[in-house]
Inverse folding.
DNA sequence: CAGTGGTCTAGACCACGGG
DNA sequence: CCGTGGTCTAGACCACTGA
């Protein structure tokens, strides 16, 4: 048994304080010398902790300006978390229209994946995403009602902000990491109708579990993607 | 215009030397003080370069032992580059059987993606992968003949090593990064026969471009995955 | 036990941002 | 211009490996 190194403890402490809201998204952290003094470590050790948090995209550092708690932006939500590419490898910007919003008891699967109590409820949202003007993706989203009290979105109109921006601004939930499982499935009748493809046509099914800054599951998303002229892009290293 | 920082130049130089074979896979690099002297930088700066190479998995560092050029291993090939999971999220170890090996002119697409000359040739390999004993994935692999001279593999028997281990051991090609594009496609007759599914059944189509230590494309792979009880797992952050 | 990489410190100087 | 983060150095001490 040996204690974790100093820089790891500083990193953990900073992450916890940011998650607790000591510095809200967009706010500047104290300067390096100030933080180093506060934690009783050298500036070099503090920098190592900050570098790790920056790599996890919890903070953003700007030379000459300061260190800021990362704000969810549409660019980030789309660039990191929306992996759809067109045939040339470009990343089109999707449009989204929600058509259903519910509050209902969580299913057994939702309870398991979102770590919910037996009789917990979820906010259930369904939306259609259009890529290059054409219906391309049908999404069912489940959110723990407890963390998303009073969740509201306009239906049947184009949504302005990315959902993850909305989560952060209105519910204090910052998505930092998502896990996805992809399969190929035949289009159910309802999805075929909404996506404008044949019933039974092959669709890319994406099941996503999103996690917050403390790595707790905060969103379960089930999506069906029509890969007509589109693909899901991955990079592994 | 300003020069890149020292640590970046040291990193580039080290990467080039490793790629050139100055230290072959598995060999130990000189110690930190020795390398620092050789490059005329402080040990701290050298460490930063080494840390970057380690993050890219080009080298592996072991406290008390030394710094080693990374060797391709089946574990790494499977863990990083084979993203298939079963229903419980476990990562089964696949078995592979090649059934076709050819040397033929590169197609236009292969020339474009692999950056080949007009009349270049490719080694073409087809194999079937079994997961948990059942046929699950059909792969067509194209390799630039110029970098894979004398490529040979036994056909119709289970393959011992992962391909990427074979590439490194026999052809000096180290795969560090792959890009993939995923779509859902109906099973062609031939694939359906080999995978034991209905013709037209939805398959997960994976198009992979693999890159070496200098980020040059070295392999084009087209795979069809039958996601029956299986899924392709991704993590984004 | 000698030698390796891992941690941590203290401090100098530079490049950049914003008043 | 001042204060910020970015780079770079020199050196101490620790933890681990392997002969």
């Amino acid at each position: 048994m040996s204690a974790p190194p100093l820089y790891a403890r500083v990193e953990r402490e900073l992450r916890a304080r940011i998650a607790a809201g000591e510095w809200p998204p967009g706010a500047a952290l104290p300067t390096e010398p100030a933080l180093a003094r506060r934690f009783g470590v050298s500036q070099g050790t503090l920098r190592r902790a900050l570098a790790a948090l920056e790599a996890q995209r919890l903070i953003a550092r700007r030379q000459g300006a300061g260190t800021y708690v990362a704000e969810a932006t549409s660019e980030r939500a789309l660039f990191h978390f929306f992996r759809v590419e067109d045939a040339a490898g470009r990343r089109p910007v999707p449009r989204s229209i929600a058509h259903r919003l519910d509050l209902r008891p969580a299913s057994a699967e939702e309870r398991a994946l979102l770590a919910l109590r037996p009789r917990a409820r979820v906010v259930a949202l369904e939306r259609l995403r259009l890529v290059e003007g054409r219906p391309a993706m049908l999404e069912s989203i489940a959110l723990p009602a407890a963390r998303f009290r009073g969740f509201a979105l306009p239906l049947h109109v184009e949504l302005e902000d990315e959902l993850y921006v909305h989560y952060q601004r209105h519910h204090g939930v910052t998505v930092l990491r998502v896990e996805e499982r992809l399969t190929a499935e035949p289009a159910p009748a309802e999805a075929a109708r909404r996506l404008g493809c044949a019933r039974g046509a092959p669709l890319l099914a994406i099941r996503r579990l999103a996690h917050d800054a403390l790595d707790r599951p905060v969103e379960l998303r089930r999506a069906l993607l029509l890969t007509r002229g589109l693909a899901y892009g991955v990079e592994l290293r």
Q: What stands out?
A: The CA atoms of residues 95 and 130 of chain A lie 5 Å apart. Chain A touches chain B at residues 56-57, 80-81, 83, 85, 89, 176-186, 201-205, 207, 225, 227, 230-237 (CB under 8 Å).
